[in-house]
TrEMBL record:
SMART domains: OMPdecase. It comes from Companilactobacillus kimchiensis. The keyword Lyase applies. Substrate binds at residues 10, 33, 60-69, 117, 179, 188, 208-209. Pathway: Pyrimidine metabolism; UMP biosynthesis via de novo pathway; UMP from orotate: step 2/2. It catalyses: orotidine 5'-phosphate + H(+) = UMP + CO2. Homodimer. Residues 4-224 form the Orotidine 5'-phosphate decarboxylase domain. Keywords: Decarboxylase, Lyase, Pyrimidine biosynthesis. GO terms for biological process: 'de novo' pyrimidine nucleobase biosynthetic process; 'de novo' UMP biosynthetic process. This is Orotidine 5'-phosphate decarboxylase. NCBIfam families: PRK00230.1 (NF001273), pyrF (TIGR01740). GO terms for molecular function: orotidine-5'-phosphate decarboxylase activity.
Length: 230
């Protein structure tokens, strides 16, 4: 990935978001992520406006529905010229394959979400009633995604070596739950620093609040890039 540090936008309004982006030099073509909250509020026109500014785009919608619905949705998104889109790997083999078919011919990479970083072993066992250990569940879902055409997964940095082992070294592993040493952990349970993520084999990292809520967003971004490159 040319831009391994992906900035997760988590703003309450588009004006605040643009003000944040204006901190960056115009030639700094960021890789941006928009999730459900901002997408539901501002929709595709906002995505297009940011693509028109030259930013790369990760649309983190975590699609999870019957295969035909997911395929039709992906056929629409395929026209949007975004670089990444997520589905839930737990949607199953047929759904993952349908999503990939819907994106056929587009530039969009399909990434499958394995286990949310807000879920630990306790939640997996007692709330979701999954009998597997967390790392076994993640690698099982990653292999399912790999076998059904996904280009990569979203996972904790801690599982990346195991995922690469059961899939391929070329299978993308994009890692949320990234916190620089100086940042609060927040609501994430399986976290890593940028340097740890890279050493574990992550292909890219997703960072939100440590950048977007910093007093100087550009400097915070550059510091994280520096940590990644150490």
């Amino acid at each position: 990935m040319n831009k391994p540090v992906i900035v997760a936008l988590d703003f309450a309004d588009d004006f605040e978001c643009i003000n944040f982006l204006n901190q960056f030099p115009k030639d700094e073509k960021l890789f941006l992520k928009i999730g459900l909250e901002m997408f539901c509020q501002f929709g595709y026109p906002f995505v297009k406006s940011l693509r028109d500014r030259g930013y790369n785009f990760f649309l983190d919608l975590k699609l999870h529905d019957i295969p035909n619905t997911v395929k039709r949705t992906c056929e629409m998104i395929a026209k949007w010229d975004v670089q990444m889109l997520t589905v839930h790997a737990s949607g199953g083999a047929e759904m993952i394959a349908a999503a990939k078919a819907g994106l056929d011919g587009s530039v969009t990479k399909l990434l499958a979400v394995t286990q949310l970083t807000s879920l630990g072993q306790t939640e997996l066992a007692h709330e979701l009633q999954v009998p597997l250990k967390s790392q076994d569940y993640v690698t099982h879902l990653a292999k399912l995604a790999y076998d059904n055409g996904a280009d990569g997964v979203i996972s904790s940095a801690l599982e990346v070596p195991m995922i690469k082992e059961v899939t391929s070294s070329d299978f993308l592993c994009v890692t949320p739950g990234i916190r620089p040493k100086s940042a609060q952990v927040g609501d994430q349970k399986r976290v890593a620093t940028p340097a740890q993520a890279r050493s574990l084999g992550s292909d890219g990292i997703v960072v939100g609040r440590p950048i977007t809520q910093a007093s100087n967003g550009y400097q915070a971004y550059m510091n994280i890039c520096e940590e990644w490159n150490k």
